[in-house]
Fold:
Amino acid sequence: MGKLVLTFNPEWSILDASVEHGHFRGHGDAYFPTDEVSEFIASLQAYPLKRSDLALRSPGLISISVFPADGVGHLFVQIEVAEEIDARGFARVRLRTDYARLSRFANQLSLMAKGEVSEIILEEDKA
Structure:
């Protein structure tokens, strides 16, 4: 089972992402303008999702994308993180989820961007 843990500091617009899947771990943090985070949150509300619609990226450090996994409502959240912008290696984790979990994640991310919560977790669907 995998999970994504996001922490966002709205004062400095720093997004911190930690991912894990089994024994695999990765971490990255990067500056994200609040308007880009807000656009990402808004696009999480679209139904149905399209791969090209939904990505939050900081070149070389963090990339979070969401796209359909199949035709029956399952989704993938793919996270790529690196410790340094010029890092040769990076961690890529793909978590399987659904629209209900994605909606909760979007609501929590919205609260985080406003500074109302400091950390959110998206756990992979066990099914």
